[in-house]
Write a structure and sequence with these properties.
heterodimer; A: about 425 residues; mainly alpha; ABC transporter involved in vitamin B12 uptake, BtuC; 3-stranded mixed beta sheet; 16 helices; globular; B: about 425 residues; 17 helices; about 75% helix
């Protein structure tokens, strides 16, 4: 008994210590990587200047560009990373460790940009603006995944739900207006999610198979209707788009206004959903019940929570979120439907959900990171960086696999995910 | 110690008997009946979709209900008849060709049939890949990515190694496809066994990595020297799978290689000790662990073999049909394969039959689009419906008032994500 009481706290602290050390070494690894890659191996000329433009428009824009010596910039970033790593090794950041991890990722990206734009000029404000736009479907997809997977229903059908609702958004949007289109898209997502729910909750079929059914069905029916009607009746495929709405006052802020506050309502609504979900999932009775159903349905049932109903509600909410994301593809972006236009964004959303550790804020971070990779790959050719754009496009998937393998902090998946609930 | 071993063996046998007897006695009739009913129901719903999306039907209903019903029957008949002719051949042409006795005419009349077998071939390989995974309790949703890797490697071997006789070059290129896919299957298998990272997530991620990677390959190292667009060189004639008839007829020996592979998979799974191990791990991994089977090795091996079969899918398409690599050449074989593996009850013979069904549908759909104006995508809708009905037999039983078997036979393949 005595040994038990002494060994248990020791074991706990040693696990803590190991994680602290490992993260410390990861931080220092990033510092070394930054330095070796961008300063030593492929380092810029000693006098090379990096120019970041901070506002749209040409040379006569009101905000002067930000210019600095590229090599110094990279060295400073590497130094900050090393200092953070050293502090982590000696003292540890405790609960703030993952925040610091995100900071390191941002610093690494900054060093990369400094290196890529050395001797050239890069529109940083435009890049960050595009990052946010490209993150929208990913973050919405990840939120859709969180809603259903936190309740124990794996949803790999986000892609199909987005595709289906993107098409309905166009048709209804063409017949009525864009708001009608968005409403119809949300309903479509809910309907497809309800089918997913019936198959996996009522008929208890494997949730991956059920999700695959939705994906194949959505791909088939949208291509079918597109080939049969949208190509012949162009008036059904011209809903117009939701116009950007610069927020008053906020959009006048220098730099930040351009990056954050000159978007469509899709972007602002995404942030509202993020805040609502962060509070809802972690600080409300509804969220607690949902998580209980996803972690230990039997215990939840014993405490009087209706497992089946909670799961249905969660899946349908997940579908509504995916439907909202689907509407973005057509009404929030290009204003027309093309076959297979979601192009795997739903699956990147799934990746962002896992990488963000099933939390809305994590999903935002992961979505922005993946969106950054996506918008950066369009600039690589202009900057003449010898990295194929395909490698940046595959980065989200690779780092998700690394996160899943537990190399840098392990993703915590809901314990009852994928298992149908049998009430006995 | 020996007693201990005895008891673990008993538990194993008991476990296996339990799962076997219920499926044998209770469902032998439904084992065959449900897939057939699932396909028929799928075709019926497909017919409803065709009717609902035909403007001529609405126009006819505007005249009178009778002419509306007639038109509705007419469009479905026209579509499915065009599908049948496109898949099997025109009976009138076939009989005319047979009576004329002209060999060339006979070949042409049977061309739709042989072409359907060409479409069937990748489905057999891909279906076997998914089925082998399912038999080991692994959900390989990454066949699509694995086939791209296999195809890329087979293409490289196909054009880079000159002066090889076909007897060496063909097996070499096919082996390349096998290895390319196997590597892409090994990674998620190893990650699953070592870190517990779920193979479904990892294979989904690796699908997209494979698509991007091969996209880059045909823009860079694998690009045809004189080409502007991203395509690979044409593979050398010595590596192409030989065609059995004259040129317009695409039928090549890949179909027979696929049948031989199906037999090999059957033999491996049901006649060897290693196959027994794999199936035991799939049926009940706890019992298998208790009996001293190596779960890690089984998982890695099964994912590698499954990936290898997927790689052969890609190699077969390159060496037999396309003869060069373009990105995104697969119309989704890897995802359709999930439906057909389940339709074939994860048994190699069932997979071959299900693959023929899918191959004939896919092949006939082109003629349906041309002659009846029904887009080929109706086949994807059909496949989704069949997949749903096969996975949830209770739906079929409710529709046709079939008796419920004693034990639930709902599909549960992948274990929970949280494990």
């Amino acid at each position: 008994m005595a040994t038990l009481t002494t060994t248990v706290p020791n074991a706990a602290t040693s696990v803590e210590l190991n994680r602290r050390r490992r993260m410390g070494f990861v931080f220092i690894g990033f510092a070394l990587l930054t330095w070796l890659l961008f300063a030593v191996w492929q380092g810029p000329e000693a006098e090379a200047i990096t120019t970041f433009r901070l506002a749209p428009g040409g040379p006569n824009s009101p905000i002067p560009p930000w210019e600095f010596n590229a090599l110094n910039g990279i060295n400073i970033v590497a130094g900050i990373c090393a200092a953070l790593g050293a502090f982590q090794l000696v003292r540890g950041f405790g609960r703030a460790t993952s925040t610091v991890m995100w900071l390191i990722v941002i610093l690494f990206a900054f060093a990369f940009l400094t290196w890529a734009a050395s001797g050239k000029s890069l529109n940083l404000a435009g890049l960050l603006n595009a990052t946010l736009v490209r993150a929208v479907p990913i973050v919405i997809g990840a939120m859709s995944g969180i809603l259903s997977e936190r309740a124990g229903i794996i949803n790999i059908a986000i892609e199909g739900m987005m595709l289906g609702s993107a098409m309905i958004a166009v048709i209804v949007g063409s017949l009525t207006n864009v708001w009608g289109g968005i409403f119809a898209a949300i309903l479509t997502g809910a309907l497809l999610a309800y089918i997913h729910g019936v198959l996996s909750i009522k008929y208890k079929i494997d949730q991956i198979i059920s999700g695959t059914v939705i994906n194949i069905f959505a791909a088939g029916i949208t291509s079918y209707i597109s080939a049969k009607f949208l190509n012949t009746y162009a008036e059904l495929n011209s809903p117009g788009i939701v116009k950007p709405f610069p927020l008053p006052l906020l959009s006048d802020l220098p730099v930040i206004g351009t990056i954050l506050f000159k978007h469509t309502w899709f972007v602002y609504t995404m942030f509202i959903f993020l805040i609502l979900m962060q509070i809802g999932v972690f600080h409300s009775r509804w969220g607690l019940r949902m998580r209980a159903v996803g972690e230990h349905p039997k215990a939840a049932d014993t405490l009087g929570i209706n497992v089946i109903r909670t799961r249905y509600i969660s899946v349908v909410l997940s579908g509504m979120m995916a439907g909202f994301g689907g509407a973005w593809f057509t009404l929030g972006s290009v204003g027309r439907f093309d076959e297979m236009m979601t192009a795997g964004k739903g699956f990147i959303g799934l990746a962002a959900m896992i990488f963000g550790n099933y939390s809305p804020m994590g999903a935002l971070g992961a979505g922005l990171l993946f969106g950054f990779a996506d918008s950066l790959q369009t600039k690589l050719a202009i900057l003449k960086v010898p990295i194929p754009s395909e490698f940046l496009l595959m980065a989200p998937y690779v780092i998700t696999m690394i996160a899943l393998a537990g190399l840098v902090g392990k993703a915590q998946l809901p314990a009852a995910g994928g298992k149908p609930y049998d009430k006995e | 110690m020996s007693e201990q071993k005895q008891s673990s063996g008993d538990i194993l046998i008991e476990e296996l008997n339990r799962t076997n007897s219920s499926s044998r006695i209770g469902q032998l009739g439904q084992l065959v009946l449900i897939p057939i009913l699932a396909v028929i129901t799928g075709l019926a719903i497909g017919a409803i979709i065709i009717i609902l999306t035909s403007e001529s039907v609405y126009a006819a209903f505007g005249n009178s209900i009778g002419s509306g019903l007639g038109e509705a029957f007419g469009v479905v008949y026209e579509a499915y008849w065009a599908l049948f002719i496109g898949a099997v051949g025109d009976p009138a042409k076939i009989s005319a060709a047979l009576s004329s006795g002209d060999a060339e005419a006979v070949r042409r009349a049977f061309n739709p049939f042989s072409d359907s077998l060409v479409t069937t071939t990748p489905y057999i390989f891909a279906g076997l890949a998914v089925a082998l995974g399912f038999r080991t309790g692994l959900f390989n949703i990454g066949v699509e990515g694995q086939l791209y890797l296999g195809a890329a490697l087979a293409t490289y071997i196909g054009f880079a190694f000159t002066d090889l006789p076909p007897i060496l070059h063909i097996p070499f290129a096919l082996a390349g496809g096998l290895v390319g896919g196997a590597i892409w299957g090994f990674i998620p298998g190893w990650l699953k066994a070592k870190t517990g990272g779920h193979e479904v997530i990892n294979t989904i991620m690796m699908n997209y990595i494979a698509i991007r990677l091969t996209e880059w390959l045909v823009k860079g190292p694998l690009q045809r020297p004189d080409a502007q667009n991203p395509i690979s060189p044409i593979v050398l004639e010595s590596s192409q799978l030989p065609k059995l008839f004259g040129d317009p007829i695409r039928f090549h020996i890949g179909f027979f290689i696929a049948l031989a592979t199906a037999w090999l998979v059957w033999w491996y799974l049901f006649r060897t000790k290693m196959g027994f191990d794999l199936r035991t791990v799939g049926a009940n991994s706890n019992a298998a662990k208790y009996a001293g089977m190596n779960i890690v090795r089984s998982t890695v091996l099964a994912m590698s073999l499954s990936g290898g079969l997927a790689g052969l899918t890609g190699a077969n398409e390159i060496l037999g049909v396309n003869h060069f690599f373009v990105s995104s050449f697969s119309p989704g074989y890897g995802f359709d394969a999930i439906a057909l593996a389940l339709l074939g009850k994860n048994h190699p013979l069932g997979v071959v039959l299900a693959a023929m069904l899918f191959g004939f549908l896919r092949s006939g759909a082109t003629s349906m689009q041309l002659n009846a104006g029904v887009p080929v995508d109706i086949i994807s809708i059909l496949q989704a419906l069949v997949l749903a009905f096969i996975a949830a037999p209770a739906i079929i039983r409710t529709i046709y008032r079939l008796k419920e078997p004693k034990e639930s036979d709902a599909m549960m393949i992948s274990a929970g994500f949280g494990d």
